[in-house]
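Internal tracking record. Fields below are filled automatically when a chain is submitted to the structure queue. Please do not edit lines marked as system-generated. If the sequence contains nonstandard residues, flag them in the REMARKS field before resubmitting.
Queue: standard
Priority: normal
Entity type: single polypeptide chain
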Amino acid sequence: HRDAQRFAEVWANQEGKVYGKVNTKVITDEEASVQNILDGMDWLVKETTQRDVAVVFISAHGLRDARNNYYLATREIDPQSLRSTGVRFSEVKELLRDLPCKVILFVDTCHSGGITGGKAVGWDDPLRDLVSEEYGAVVFSSCLPREISLEDPRWQHGAFTKALLDTFGSSDSDNNGDGYLSLTELEEHVYQKVKQLTQGQQHPVVERPSTIRNFSFFFVGSG
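SYSTEM-GENERATED OUTPUT FOLLOWS
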């Protein structure tokens, strides 16, 4: 809950800096039903145009069924009835396919780099498809496939989310001094911060389609 709220607040502050207008929608805790999540996806598609940048932040647990389909856990999740109580990851893929603009996806889950970790060896990684030209998303995952996304009460966030917020909030993240954060600058600083916070136990993964070049997307001010 805290992660999503803070993430939305940070992006809302970009209005009038990089973007003329910033619209946000936060779905957490008791609001995170299947219907509300799907409605939120519809909202995002309707709100975006080719000139926009869509940012999606997912912080959730996930489960697979006997057929290897992956689901995001909702407030009503029932492991015995995933099809009716979880959000199938194919819905996320279809969302990204329908968005007409650049998309940056942040995924903060255990084993997010491979979605399910060590036991998933031999299974398809749903995140891998998202960086294909068909979907065209820039994907920031919280850890490698065999790793766990670590948390600590001292951080008040998971290591990945804390590293993101710290990077967004510091002009030191701006390597070239132009006042803006680029994809490569975010990748470098988040990777180093997570590695430091977890004493090398967690390593974020960043992937983007070959068709998307590095671009600046976030104002951090000058150092």
